[in-house]
């Protein structure tokens, strides 16, 4: 075997080092590009998880983020949100991307167990695959794993039979992509995707049929976003109706409400305050405008083509100290200091009651909740603090509360139906039962 002398060996060594350096230089940009791409995907997943409000449902009160356990009360029983942290045993740590995709878009867990559609997979079915991949990347890379197995659902027969959900999926699951309308601009099409899929607005604001499927999935249905009942609250009509919908709101009004939880027309409360606090306030300005553009394009579902017309008669009576109508005196004592004799409130702090879509809603459930238990506005970065409206269930009986609500719904030009005492009594009992159940957990 021939052995190279010192000089040739040194030359060969230098040549090899040079080749290795060239190879490393060629590979390094590719590696950096891959790392940058991974970081971008994780950040995209973070943004999508936030505006889809994943943490709100998958985090119990006082619990670890995304570990599940939040009770979700439905008309057929109570179920608990799942653990979506990357814990291998009780979360999604063992899920492949394909298995995660199947769970998110088709409601089938890794072990084949079917998920209840309280998880809005019927909306997520229309997510793009690259967005599902981004969510997967974020949950796996950035969320701390938590070992937590959550309670089993407590469902009435036969709804506890998960096998029936396969039939439900056949009947109601539509995984066609969100329709791209070439006649519309990019903002409208982006808004359609956000509203229908990512933000799943229809899960709360679209009425459901006998088998609890949404009656409409997009703007082609007259039921889509026309208002619904959710856990004892009335989720308002988001179509273009002038009185009970968004017909009187501008595109900027909608974006402002989603960003801050308040505008000149209304202030958030109840579950919507949570949505604003944990999700919509973080939407980019372009996405807020896109959602607003899409919502403003929806025709009114209830045929309200005439705008709200204020009537000064109630304000005049209150200012004169006249309490002719039932509920007027209680309004003057408990409500007028903030909402005024004219029902106009104080814009972006105390919402107007005159012409407010929630006040005019055919379903007074949210107003009943507000007067019984009070409410909190959204906690957002654009406001120095949230505002607590006190509840008056402790001092007013059912008939008095019904009178106040009826007075509000029929004053200043409002033309909503009276609120029966029985509705207030039933909701008071339901809220008390809910508090007992929470205390026993």
Overall description:
With 441 residues, the chain is mostly helical. Helix content is 45%, strand content 5%. The protein has 17 helices and seven strands. The chain has helices at 6-51, 54-58, 97-106, 121-124, 129-142, 164-172, 186-198, 202-205, 251-260, 270-278, 285-296, 313-319, 328-339, 357-360, 365-373, 398-409, 421-440, and strands spanning 71-74, 77-80, 154-155, 228-230, 233-235, 375-376, 388-389. Strands 1-2-3 form a three-stranded antiparallel sheet, with no helix packed on it. A two-stranded antiparallel ribbon has the order 4-5. The radius of gyration is 27 Å and the shape is globular. It starts with 5 loop residues before the first helix and ends with a helix. Mean pLDDT is 91; it is low at 1-6.
What labels would you give this structure?
single chain; 441 residues; mainly alpha; Cytochrome Bc1 Complex, Chain D, domain 2; 3-stranded antiparallel beta sheet; two-stranded antiparallel ribbon; 5% strand; globular; disordered N terminus; Membr-bd_ADH_cyt_c; iron; repeat; membrane; Three-component membrane-bound alcohol deshydrogenase, cytochrome c subunit (AdhB)
What is the topological layout?
Blueprint: H1 6-51, H2 54-58, E1 71-74, E2 77-80, H3 97-106, H4 121-124, H5 129-142, E3 154-155, H6 164-172, H7 186-198, H8 202-205, E4 228-230, E5 233-235, H9 251-260, H10 270-278, H11 285-296, H12 313-319, H13 328-339, H14 357-360, H15 365-373, E6 375-376, E7 388-389, H16 398-409, H17 421-440
Antiparallel strand pairs: 1-2, 2-3, 4-5, 6-7
Helix pairs in contact: 1-5, 3-5, 7-11, 9-11, 15-17, 16-17
Keywords: Cell membrane, Heme, Iron, Membrane, Metal-binding, Repeat, Signal
Cofactor: heme c
Binding site for heme c 1: 54, 57-58
């Amino acid at each position: 075997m021939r052995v190279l002398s010192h000089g040739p060996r040194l030359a060969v060594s230098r040549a090899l080092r040079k080749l290795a350096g060239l190879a490393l230089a060629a590979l390094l940009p590719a590696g950096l590009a891959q790392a940058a791409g991974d970081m971008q995907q994780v950040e995209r997943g973070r943004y999508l998880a936030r505006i889809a409000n994943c943490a709100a449902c998958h985090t119990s009160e006082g619990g670890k983020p995304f570990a599940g356990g939040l009770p979700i009360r439905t008309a057929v029983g109570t179920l608990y949100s799942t653990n979506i942290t990357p814990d291998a045993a009780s979360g999604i740590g063992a899920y492949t991307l394909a298995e995660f995709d199947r769970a998110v878009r088709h409601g089938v867990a890794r072990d084949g167990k079917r998920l209840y559609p309280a998880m809005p997979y019927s909306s997520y079915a229309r997510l793009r695959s690259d967005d599902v991949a981004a969510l997967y990347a974020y949950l796996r890379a950035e969320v701390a794993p938590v070992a937590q197995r959550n309670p089993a659902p407590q469902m009435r027969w036969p709804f506890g039979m998960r096998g029936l959900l396969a039939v439900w999926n056949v009947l109601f699951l539509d995984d066609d992509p969100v329709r791209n309308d070439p006649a519309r601009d990019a903002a409208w099409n982006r808004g359609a995707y956000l509203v229908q899929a990512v933000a799943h607005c229809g899960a709360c604001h679209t009425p459901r049929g006998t088998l609890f499927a949404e009656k409409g999935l997009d703007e082609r249905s007259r039921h889509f976003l026309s208002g619904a009942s959710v856990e004892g609250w009335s989720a308002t009509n988001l179509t273009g109706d002038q009185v009970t919908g968004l017909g009187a709101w501008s595109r900027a009004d909608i974006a402002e409400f989603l960003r801050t939880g308040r505008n000149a027309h209304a202030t958030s409360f109840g579950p919507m305050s949570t949505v604003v606090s944990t999700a919509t306030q973080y939407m980019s300005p372009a996405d807020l405008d896109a959602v607003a553009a899409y919502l403003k394009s929806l025709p009114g579902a209830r045929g309200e083509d005439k705008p709200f017309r204020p009537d000064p008669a109630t304000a005049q009576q209150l200012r004169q100290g006249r309490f002719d109508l039932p509920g007027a005196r209680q309004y003057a004592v408990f409500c007028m200091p903030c909402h005024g004799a004219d029902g106009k409130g104080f814009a972006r702090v105390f919402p107007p009651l005159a012409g407010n879509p929630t006040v005019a809603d055919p379903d007074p459930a949210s107003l009943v909740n507000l007067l019984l238990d009070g409410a909190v506005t959204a906690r957002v970065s654009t406001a120095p603090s949230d505002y607590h409206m006190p509840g008056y269930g402790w001092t007013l009986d059912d008939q008095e509360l019904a009178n106040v609500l009826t007075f509000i719904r029929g004053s200043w030009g409002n033309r909503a139906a009276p609120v029966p005492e029985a509705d207030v009594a039933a909701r008071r009992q339901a809220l008390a039962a809910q508090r007992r159940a929470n205390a026993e957990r």
